């Protein structure tokens, strides 16, 4: 059960992100914390996290967004949802707000980019489909194994549902990719697991995947130890991190514990080879792996070669 704290947001709605991939796009979090409660979620370590089993829902986001955009001389080309939460959490208030804000932005000709592990309700899917040229999405899927997904992502949509909605949104003409983030060392990074997942994604029509390997913060280690009670899942994961190294991510502002570089390279190489057999291209996330990857993982989609428009992406139109 998730406790929903209702609060008025005092700070700005449109915020810049520290991720290089989002450097040119304003972002919106509808909540602090996320009802999906993924056991590996990095946001547990953030100072704004509301605590275990809670989310902070901002009741005035749309009102403030309208006011902020009205004051801007140039409107954003697109907005990204959400750097530290998920717009499709199974909470009625959140889903209602997502629908209203997406409608407002799309009606204003402003694009919507999102990443989600949630169940996208039918009316939201219909809204996105009716504005396909203005929508980009990454649907997160770390495994096609339902047992592992339930253990690590207890409130997210099942792999089956995520694959089905991926196929549906792609068929509607929306630029949808998949996001394997995080790959779980010792659990989901072996060749058979990667092959099963890539096969399922290819069947859904996916051609591009962004990927990264789990890294650890103290709050994530605590969460894994507390919530992943099946030792056949927890132990191989912890064993994989017996040798780990400190790494600076997000422009050096945050220190995390990662697998050694050679281990991450090996996983990336394995995934790339498997994905290629299924006609899928993989981009490793450079924001989280600055030592071995470069370029963008396309988290907010490409806006300069779209199905419905050819507008160049910059933070504000006309710049
Ligand atoms: S869906 Fe994303 S933001 Fe939500 S709990 Fe899972 S990893 Fe965190």
What does this structure look like?
By secondary structure, the protein is of the alpha/beta class. It has a single domain (3-284), classed as pyruvate-formate lyase- activating enzyme (Alpha-Beta Horseshoe), CATH 3.80.30. Helices cover 34% and strands 18% of the residues. It contains 9 helices and 12 strands. It has helices at residues 61-71, 92-107, 122-130, 146-152, 159-171, 191-204, 218-227, 231-240, 261-277; strands at residues 3-7, 27-28, 31-32, 54-58, 78-81, 111-116, 135-140, 175-183, 208-213, 245-249, 254-258, 281-284. The strands form 3 sheets. A 7-stranded parallel beta sheet has the order 2-5-6-7-8-9-12, covered by helices on one side. The radius of gyration is 19 Å and the shape is globular. The structure holds iron/sulfur cluster.
Strand and helix map with partners:
Layout: E1 3-7, E2 27-28, E3 31-32, E4 54-58, H1 61-71, E5 78-81, H2 92-107, E6 111-116, H3 122-130, E7 135-140, H4 146-152, H5 159-171, E8 175-183, H6 191-204, E9 208-213, H7 218-227, H8 231-240, E10 245-249, E11 254-258, H9 261-277, E12 281-284
Parallel strand pairs: 1-4, 2-5, 5-6, 6-7, 7-8, 8-9, 9-12
Antiparallel strand pairs: 3-4, 10-11
Helix pairs in contact: 2-3, 5-6, 6-9
